Prior knowledge:
Arc Repressor Mutant, subunit A, 9 helices
Amino acid sequence: MSATDPRDAIVEHLPALRAFAMSLCRNSAQADDLVQDTVVKAWTKFDKFQEGTNLRAWLFTILRNTFYSGRRKAQREVADVDGVFSANLASKPDHDGRLAMKDFENAFAKLPDEQREALILVGASGFSYEEAADMCGCAVGTIKSRANRGRAKLSELLHLEENDSMELTDQSTMAVLAANARSAS
């Protein structure tokens, strides 16, 4: 850098930049961070600075734009100091759903045809017992019995307790399950 390099003049403007940053932030730590961000941006973008123009004005513009960009970004962010909000956003890994779905498919394949048919019609496709009985050409009680025995056998094969539920955590698995139910009916 030569003696007339404008980069050397940045140091001269630091007190004025800090004062301007303080007027915007009203917090000394944030003002110091803002000045530092401004200097870093100016240094990395010095090829955009036109020699002979007002360096101080250019630096103030960078500082001001950095400040307002940060404010816009902060408005989109949610303060979650105690982690309550982020805890509600947490989700199980997608592979849990795929593994559970694979276990379900394996157990479902082990059911007798009549039980699978009853579960698909009543459980997955949403038909009433009466509608399923009409489709299968059997009594309503037979469909109820097949669906109940199928559920019990699935619970046994999947090692589910009475109050357990099988959670499918990923949307892909839920979409496949819904599509399979529609194609089976």
